[in-house]
């Protein structure tokens, strides 16, 4: 979805909103629902709501910057416009690329987890790794070959998974119990908010709309509606799903099956058929997410390399595709997806995007005159993103101190790569991304 090149502006409201919804409901809810319940318990719906509010407020800065600077580079271009060609922009751009790789790893992990449920219990641990790796390799090959089949199927896959989730909600309401949803079963305030921020990765996909701005008809009119409609719809969807899950399955059972919690939650009211239905939806959803994010991550590495912040090899186009960036992205994804657990990947992804979104809010504060923005809204967005990151770190310190080094290390590595590369290669950093 990132970097689509068309001569005519073909996207209306529905197509634009679908990009945001498809990006958010790409696989996140299937991957992190069980983790959310483990952290927030009966307060999981509140955790999803809080994470959604952070995304919703940040949406304002994205839409204002998207209208003013329509670009295939999206976030990359916004950071350049606000912070120039310095180390800040370079480090944040590399952090963005790494965060996308983490998201890819999370989707692949979810694919492997749901796919392994079709095998015997003894084979599931091995099959999870096999299927996780296979999903990355297969879609890498498809992207290299330029298969259009998967791309054409994206719209249908989004429609199918939304329809299945609606079926889950519709039938789940009938057997809903509110006992576990009562405040007495919620985690404490820090764990509740921290849990919401750990699963923030489930919302990050709305920013994909920024990369399609150049293809949107009447962006000044369509973008505000599409951005807000997509985020609000997904907030309602996620909160509803978490209510149905906790209202139909014990918290202990959800946590014990957290890698495929959504499928397990369908069993009480839809039986084994419901489990299979949700598992199939998860495989479809994570497949489309892997495909779209893999292509997008490779394009981001290409765009950043064009700016001079990554090795020149990554800006080589083979068969009109950033294949070298694609292979490097896939290789790193294979490592993370197989070496890190679900919790660590969620922490890495959420902290990475909270930092990026805080920077985008700050960018809109700096550029508020050019974007004609209400500065206070972006200030609020910056404060909330920064505060959410602090709460996430505090929550990790209180539960497992070692995990706090994961997001800190990811940030340090991003800027260290930028510093070393600048010193060794001394490439000129430039912007050639905006649409004139």
Can you describe this structure in just a few lines?
This protein is mainly α. Helix content is 74%, strand content 0%. Residues 1-7, 311-320 and 431-436 have low confidence and may be disordered.
Description:
- The chain is mainly alpha-helical.
- The protein has a single domain, classed as Amino acid/polyamine transporter I.
- It is built from 16 helices and no strands.
- It has helices at 13-24, 28-40, 44-68, 75-83, 87-116, 124-145, 149-174, 189-198, 219-248, 251-256, 261-307, 323-339, 342-366, 368-371, 375-399, 405-425.
- Helix 5 (87-116) packs across helix 6, helix 11 runs antiparallel to helix 12 (323-339) and helix 13 crosses helix 16.
- The longest helix has 47 residues, at 261-307.
- It is globular.
- The model is unreliable at 1-7, 311-320 and 431-436 (pLDDT under 50).
Number of strands: 0
- Structural classification: mainly alpha
The share of residues in helices is over 70%
Mean pLDDT over the full residue set: 84
How many angstroms does the end-to-end distance come to?
20 Å
Query: Cα-atom Rg, whole angstroms?
Result: 20 Å
Please state roughly what percent of the residues sit in beta strands, choosing from under 5%, 5-15%, 15-25%, 25-35%, 35-45% or over 45%: under 5%
CATH topology, what is it called? Answer: Amino acid/polyamine transporter I
Low-confidence stretches: 1-7, 311-320, 431-436
CATH architecture: Up-down Bundle
């Amino acid at each position: 979805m990132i970097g689509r090149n068309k001569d005519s502006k073909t996207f209306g409201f529905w197509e634009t909103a679908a990009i945001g919804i498809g990006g958010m409901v790409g696989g996140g809810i299937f991957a992190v629902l069980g983790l959310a319940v483990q952290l927030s318990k009966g307060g999981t719906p509140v955790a999803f709501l809080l994470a959604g509010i952070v995304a919703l407020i940040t949406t304002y800065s994205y839409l204002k910057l998207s209208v003013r600077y329509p670009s295939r580079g999206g976030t990359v271009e916004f950071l350049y416009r606000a912070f120039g060609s310095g180390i800040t922009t370079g480090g944040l751009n590399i952090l963005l690329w790494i965060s996308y790789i983490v998201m890819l790893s999370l989707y692949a992990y979810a694919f492997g987890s749901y796919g392994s449920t079709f095998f015997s219990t003894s084979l599931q641990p091995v099959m999870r790794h096999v299927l996780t790796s296979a999903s990355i390799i297969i879609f890498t090959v498809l992207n290299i070959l330029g298969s259009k089949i998967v791309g054409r199927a994206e719209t249908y896959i989004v429609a199918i998974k939304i329809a299945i989730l609606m079926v889950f909600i519709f039938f789940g309401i009938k057997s809903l119990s509110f006992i576990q949803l009562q405040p007495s079963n919620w985690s404490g305030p820090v764990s509740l908010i921290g849990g919401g921020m750990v699963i923030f990765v489930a919302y990050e996909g709305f920013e994909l709309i920024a990369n399609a701005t150049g293809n949107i008809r009447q962006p000044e009119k369509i973008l505000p509606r599409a951005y807000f409609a997509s985020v609000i719809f997904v907030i309602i969807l996620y909160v509803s799903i978490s209510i149905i899950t906790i209202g139909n399955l014990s918290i202990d059972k959800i946590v014990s099956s957290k890698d495929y919690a959504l499928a397990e939650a369908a069993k009480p009211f839809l039986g084994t058929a419901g489990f299979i239905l949700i598992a199939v939806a998860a495989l479809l959803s994570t497949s489309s997410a892997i495909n779209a994010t893999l292509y997008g991550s490779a394009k981001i590495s290409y765009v950043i390399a064009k700016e001079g912040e990554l090795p020149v090899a990554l800006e080589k186009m083979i068969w009109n595709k950033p294949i070298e960036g694609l292979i490097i992205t896939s290789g790193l994804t294979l490592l993370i997806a197989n070496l890190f657990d679900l919790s660590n990947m969620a922490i890495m992804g959420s902290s990475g995007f909270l930092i990026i979104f805080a920077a985008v809010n700050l960018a809109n504060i700096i550029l508020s005159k050019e974007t004609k923005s209400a500065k206070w809204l972006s200030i609020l967005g910056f404060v909330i993103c920064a505060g959410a990151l602090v709460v996430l770190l505090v929550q990790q310190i209180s539960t497992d101190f070692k995990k706090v080094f994961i997001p800190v290390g990811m940030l340090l590595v991003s800027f260290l790569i930028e510093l070393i590369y600048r010193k060794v290669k001394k490439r000129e950093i430039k912007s050639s991304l905006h649409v004139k």
